[in-house]
Amino acid sequence: xxxxxxxxxxxxxxxxxxxxxxxxxxxxxxxxxxxxxxxxxxxxxxxxxxxxxxxxxxxxxxxxxxxxxxxxxxxxxxxxxxxxxxxxx
Length: 89
Description:
Blueprint: H1 4-9, E1 16-23, H2 31-39, E2 44-49, H3 58-66, E3 71-75, H4 78-81
Parallel strand pairs: 1-2, 1-3
């Protein structure tokens, strides 16, 4: 059993799920990914409509910035996050 002072100093980590969705073009639809991330109880969902080969993806940057200790980035498939030849792999 932790003593009272040890309990006060113990850091609490809260699990936060952050969703990230991406489609390659504006002609594609994010709905299927957004529905899946919502059903997975993501508290925040960021998205991009751009190629996965682009290094600058504002939605991904937003999700990573929002993530903090205890946070988890949730993606529908690995390719939505990294894309081909990505520096995130």
